[in-house]
Design goal:
Blueprint (H helix, E strand, L loop, with lengths): L1 H6 L3 H29 L3 H8 L4 H13 L3 H32 L12 H22 L9 H44 L1
Helix pairs in contact: 2-5, 5-6, 5-7, 6-7
Amino acid sequence: MITSLRNYPSKISTRIILVTGLAIFIPAYGYIARLFSQMGIETAEFNTVWLSFDVNQFQIFLQKIIDQEQVHTFLLSYKINIISMSGFGCVFFALAIILTRTIPEESKLYNTATVFPVVAVLIAILDIFPSLFLIASATSFPHLSQWVVTTISGGYMVRVILLYILLLWFAVVGINRGKAFYNKVTKNTA
């Protein structure tokens, strides 16, 4: 599979995917941040609720949104989130492929490289799927069932863990490539 990632998508297609993803992700995410700010939702509060697996915390949070008459804005932010995460998936898929192509075959990282473009897409899916659940459950706000809350929190939790793993892999590959470059430069000057 690594051989196919070295050739497909082509380098030009990978760049197009990256630029398209950035063109989608950055404005959409910026707009979501603006909507959350207008609703008075802080990131720490949101993350605490979404990672809680607790129906009561979800109910309190959603009741606050209802009391502020911001349900429409909240749901709009989740619809835009689906678009945003599509861009996110494209960006990190393309970055993972670009990094994968820099790994030499003799490297220990070479065998793991094929997993990470897929992880990037999986992260996006694990954000989109719970967003769809939340939108579909909007008629029952603020009373969500435990399985809906578990689906939302579970998807969010796995997404966060996979994102940290992906970023760690990016760092390891970057350090490995930097080390290889340093060794090459010092070898040529010696």
